């Protein structure tokens, strides 16, 4: 190999060695740069935010003592306070009608005339027969009286025995008794006849208003059907019916309220039937109305009365009463004095933290707004009166200031309403 070739080979080897050292240095520098960048990124990387949620917000109240009453509403009918059903005392064909619905009548005014000639004629025959029997009895009594006077004279002179005189005296007494009986029969027959004549004209039993009529010319009237209804002068009453459950809640003397077309009237219970109707099973009640009410007879009205009540009851809002598994509960709250909460929860600065307790209670009367509590809580307890899905035993909640409860709370979002 020539000198020049050796020289070229050495130069080539030196060049390759320099290139390797340069590449190694570049790689080391790149690693150092990456390590420095990682350190810088770690030093200046922001801390990860901790996820937070607000505690559910509730409002609270305290049990109160107050009276509770339940008002029941029923439907009643306005009726005259005094009402008379006019029924003929004799059967027959109606020949004349003297009144119509709405007419004012005075006691004794004619209502209608009934053809009861058959009854009148029969009564007349009985009267005539009784008079004949009376006349016959008068003749017999006169004869017996004459005979007794004659016997008295003979007995006084001793011409007849005492037995004969007593026989004459007995005959006179019997004849006189028969005459008295015949006179009574005439009086009875006369009365029957007069009544039949009187019955032919039906008259008003009282002064008042003809509320309704049930008469037609030439129709038959009987002693079992009314020809008209008359309301006597005076006030009005309301008739309604109650069930046996409501019967104990109403009594004579109670005040009730009547409503008709937005107007309100007062009434006083005057009658409570102790036996139910055989057709409806309900108990009839009547209440007197003020004479100035002006309500239309027969119109329907709303009747309101207090069916149940209790005095000085311990009450909580009805919305604070819950039911689960056939039992009744309320949620009470105890405040956490340190306002300690779980990590990741938020509480508004004006609110307090409390722990929920599920308490079984026994309830009594409820008017829809408040409910009587018989056992389970006391007047000193704090009652949760708003709902949230986080109501369960031991749950932490934030409580609105009690003076601001009227504003309510948005329990799902956990923020107090403004």
Classified by CATH, the class of the largest domain is Mainly Alpha
Number of helices: 4
Uncertain parts: 404-418
The dominant shape is rod-shaped
Fraction of residues in H or I helices: 25-40%
Number of distinct beta strands: 27
Give me the side-by-side strand order of the main sheet: 4-13-16-15-14-17
CATH superfamily of the largest domain: Helix hairpin bin
Mean pLDDT: 84
Keywords:
4 helices, Elongation Factor Tu (Ef-tu), domain 3, Helix Hairpins, five-stranded mixed beta sheet, 418 residues, 30% helix, conserved putative lor/sdh protein from methanococcus maripaludis s2 fold, single chain, 27 strands, alpha+beta, disordered C terminus, 3 domains
What features would you describe in this structure?
This protein has helices at residues 3-44, 117-157, 162-199, 244-247, and strands spanning 53-54, 57-58, 60-61, 64-80, 83-86, 92-97, 104-105, 110-115, 201-203, 208-213, 220-221, 228-232, 236-242, 255-260, 263-272, 283-289, 300-317, 322-324, 327-335, 345-346, 352-360, 362-366, 370-375, 383-384, 396-399, 409-410, 415-416. With 418 residues, the protein is of the alpha+beta class. It folds into three domains: 57-66 and 312-416, conserved putative lor/sdh protein from methanococcus maripaludis s2 fold (Beta Barrel); 76-81 and 232-311, Efflux pump adaptor protein, beta barrel domain (Elongation Factor Tu (Ef-tu), domain 3); 85-210, Helix Hairpins, CATH 1.10.287. Strand 14 (255-260) and strand 15 (263-272) form a beta hairpin. Helix 2 runs antiparallel to helix 3 (162-199). The protein is rod-shaped, with a radius of gyration of 55 Å. Residues 404-418 have low confidence and may be disordered.
